[in-house]
Amino acid sequence: MTMSLWDRIGTEYLAAYKAGDRVRVDTLRLVKAALEKVSIEKRKDRLDDAEILQVLTQQAKQRRETLEAVKASGREDIIAQTNQELAILTAYLPQPMSDDALGTLIEEAFQTAGQNQGQVMKYVMGKAGGAVDGKRVSQLVAQRLSKG
């Protein structure tokens, strides 16, 4: 049986702590705190893998936004640390979906959900899990809608 994401994060946190890997420890500590917060909000003892992927995706998105904001300042120390944190987080996320596969999924969504952008987005994001960026999906769906 494969290990759940919850267990994997906990195990890798302990291993990083014992190895003295500060960046990994700090990153996973922040992830664990975010997971605890969500589990309290949802009144659950433990989140399932899909819920954990949502939190990890959100954490990765925050790091990407930080990189965008900091690039202009030239703070190489923050850029380097944020890149390390992003690499740690993306190791837990599924591989990004290819453009072809995403296009096929969007077409499938239009056949199933109709011409409503919200319904199409919901369908695509549900089927793709954490393998797609919501902003990218939104742009592609809007392009498809403008074509008719």
Task: Describe the secondary-structure layout.
Blueprint: H1 5-19, H2 22-41, H3 49-71, H4 76-90, H5 99-113, H6 117-128, H7 134-147
Explain what the structure shows.
- This protein is 77% helix and 0% strand.
- The radius of gyration is 18 Å and the shape is globular.
- The mean pLDDT is 86.
- By secondary structure, it is an all-alpha fold.
Keywords:
globular; 77% helix; mainly alpha; Hypothetical Protein Yqey, Chain: A, domain1; 148 residues; 2 domains
Briefly characterize the structure.
The protein is mostly helical and 148 residues long. The protein contains 7 helices and no strands.
| Main beta sheet strand tally, sense and closure | none
Mean pLDDT: 86
Low-pLDDT runs: none
Number of strands: 0
How does the overall form come out from the CA principal axes?
Answer: globular
Structural class: mainly alpha
Distance between the termini: 46 Å
Number of domains: 2
Radius of gyration: 18 Å
Task: Write the CATH homologous superfamily of the largest domain.
Answer: Uncharacterised protein YqeY/AIM41, N-terminal domain
Strand content: under 5%
Order of helices and strands: HHHHHHH
* CATH topology call of the largest domain: Hypothetical Protein Yqey, Chain: A, domain1
Number of helices: 7
> Which CATH class of the largest domain?
Mainly Alpha
Helix content: over 70%
CATH architecture of the largest domain: Orthogonal Bundle
